[in-house]
Write a structure and sequence with these properties.
Layout: H1 3-24, H2 44-52, E1 58-59, H3 61-64, H4 70-79, E2 84-86, H5 91-96, E3 101-103, H6 105-115, E4 119-121, H7 132-135, H8 140-145, E5 151-154, H9 163-172, E6 176-180, E7 199-201, H10 204-216, E8 223-226, H11 234-253, H12 261-273, H13 276-310
Parallel strand pairs: 1-4, 2-3, 4-5, 5-8, 6-7, 6-8
Helix pairs in contact: 10-13, 11-12, 11-13
Length: 311
């Protein structure tokens, strides 16, 4: 290929990426996914990466805070509880009042999909709460996964939730669930939950192929890549898991059910473990981010390769 041909190819690639990004903000009037670009402010760095077709990973507010400037962190700290916990349900309200929202998994997925970021990293997702068949307490994360084509890299769900019912609900929503280098779906603090994952992926490249297939088939749903907590942190995780099971037994003995169960379990586990869960949380989030970044890079390479093969 001549230098001129190579230059033309790069220009064509850049133009196609720009068109792809613009398409997110220029849907037809009848399209339910229509976006008003005035409601979105994209940082120059992210905007440039989107235009250049560079791999990007979306993060939740709690993780993003590590990358904010001192001034921005001070502003966030001053907001305190004034920053509303924002799931998909709350987005319109927070925007309407000009408020500040701390986005949950479902809201972050929504925004990531709107601007064309296909990979999202978090610690863990929400799920079906214990006694959910009575309380109907089911995280909006699960329904969002059923309608938003974003891949969520996480450490599974905490065992304070009903893991088998969570997996069943994800199946009902048509969500692909894969475990990374494992046959079992991870349980956040522990590498194994005792429940087999529907799919297994063993490398970032396999994850990328899975995401690419999901997009090309137009399924319209998201997918989960469950990454087990690093082995080096499993001992602390097992201690926390043991405490969780003890507290769950307490709820049975004290007849704490329905909406009261989860807040009680969280408060009691925190009381009994002290700061032990913080180190484990940090370790698994760093690991998820590491794997997620590799997946995003592999996905970009795969998509670029497919584009050049087609042209």
């Amino acid at each position: 290929m001549s230098e001129q041909d190579g230059s033309a190819s790069r220009m064509w690639g850049a133009a196609s990426r720009v068109a792809n990004i613009r398409s997110h903000f220029s849907r037809s009037p009848g399209d339910v996914d229509k976006v008003d670009a005035s409601n979105f402010k994209i940082s120059p760095l992210v905007q440039r990466a989107l235009v250049d077709g560079l791999p990007i990973v979306a993060l939740e507010s709690t993780i993003i805070s590590h990358g904010l400037t001192t001034t921005e962190l001070e502003k966030l700290a001053k907001l305190g509880h004034k920053a509303l916990k924002t799931s998909r349900r709350d987005i319109a309200y927070v925007v309407a009042i000009g408020g500040n929202g701390a986005t949950t998994v479902s809201a972050t997925m929504f925004f990531a999909a709107k601007v064309g970021i296909p990979v999202f990293v978090t610690g863990g997702i929400g799920g079906v709460h214990r006694h959910g068949e009575i309380s109907m307490d089911i995280s909006s994360d699960l329904t969002e996964l059923g309608r938003t084509p974003v891949a969520v890299v996480c450490a599974g769900v905490k065992s304070i939730l009903d893991i088998p019912r969570t997996l069943e609900y994800l199946e009902t929503q048509g969500v692909t669930v894969a475990a990374y280098n494992s046959e079992e779906f991870p349980a956040f603090f522990t590498r194994r939950s005792g429940f087999k994952a529907p799919c297994r992926v063993n490398s970032p490249e396999e994850c990328a192929k899975l995401i690419d297939s999901n997009v090309k088939l137009g399924l319209g749903s998201g997918l989960i890549i469950g990454v087990p907590i690093p082995e080096a942190s499993e001992a602390a995780g097992n201690l926390i898991e043991s405490t969780i099971q003890t507290v769950v037994k307490e709820t049975v003995e004290k007849n704490i059910t329905g909406n009261a169960a989860t807040p009680y379990i969280l408060a009691r586990v925190n009381e009994l473990t002290g700061g032990a869960s913080l180190a484990a949380n940090i370790a698994l989030v760093k690991n998820n981010a590491y794997i997620g970044a590799k997946v995003a890079v592999s996905l970009r390479r795969l998509q670029d390769s497919s584009f050049h093969s087609a042209n």
